[in-house]
Amino acid sequence: MQKLGQHFLNNDLVLQKIISALELEEGSTVIEIGPGRGALTIPLAAACEATRCRLVAIEKDAALASALVAEFAATTSTAEAAITAATTDVEIITGDALKLLPTAVITATKSNENYLIVGNIPYYITGKLLRVISETETKPRQCVLMVQREVAERICATPPAMNRLSASVQFWAQAKIIAAVPKKDFTPPPNVDSAVILLTKKPVAPAIDANHYYQTVRAVFAQPRKTILNNVSAIKKDAPKDELAALLKKLDIRPDDRPQDLSVAKIIALAGALWG
């Protein structure tokens, strides 16, 4: 099991806080990543039943998935099989969430775009999972994720501590930490503490092409210790530095500042200026 980075939460108060943070609505779909032994899945399924929403859990470990299937007697799928509509309120899917999530989202949003994502995320897939979520055409209304505390702090960072991860996630979501979870609350205990983050989809999509925004994020944070002007110059090699400096000043961005000083709003403005 440890090869999959599995650490099972054993604090019921934290589990209830995760469920309480989810704004469950009738007709919505909750996608759980890595249900494991079902510590969250079982009470979450009860909450979903009370709210008349659907729960889809994606588990990579086949043995754990089989145990959950027995628990719920749910429809199952494999990584190779097409995801079909569940015949019960709970569906367990066996496979890699990084590969299956885009299809699960498409299935979940066929009737409406109201879906949520929840899970105790293995540390080694956190960044990849957030990229997969950010790349979905229809973003989740909410994500409640247990992640490494240091990663949670990076996701929720604001100027002057912005970073590529916070800039990427906060483009589409408001982010905040809602619970600290010490390592002792897991079996077996991991080497680091965790935190629960709440990502809430922004009510209005930013007025910029997402590809242009992320292209700008990659460029600006390519060399975090360099100035914003130097990083922008690296991608606009044909433009004189004095012209780029003037452009930055026009956007109320100081050319000698570092990338960590940029807010999401200023990155959006810079993306619009760089890519039209």
Can you put this structure into words, describing what you see?
The protein has helices at 12-21, 41-51, 62-72, 97-108, 126-135, 149-155, 164-169, 210-220, 228-235, 241-250, 264-275, and strands at 8-9, 29-33, 54-59, 75-77, 90-94, 115-120, 142-148, 173-181, 186-187, 194-201. The protein is of the alpha/beta class and 276 residues long. Helix 4 (97-108) runs parallel beside helix 5, helix 8 (210-220) packs across helix 11 and helix 9 (228-235) crosses helix 10 (241-250). 39% of the residues are buried. It is 39% helix and 19% strand. It has 2 domains: 2-201, Rossmann fold, CATH 3.40.50.150; 210-275, Helicase, Ruva Protein, domain 3 (Orthogonal Bundle).
- Beta-strand portion reads 15-25%
Q: Main beta sheet, described?
A: 8 strands, mixed
How many strands appear in the DSSP assignment? 10
Q: Which structural class is indicated by helix and strand composition?
A: alpha/beta
Number of helices: 11
Multimeric state: single chain
Overall mean pLDDT stands at 89
| Low-pLDDT segments, ≥5 res | 78-87
**What share of the residues lie within helices?**
25-40%
CATH superfamily of the largest domain: Vaccinia Virus protein VP39
Q: How many discrete domains?
A: 2
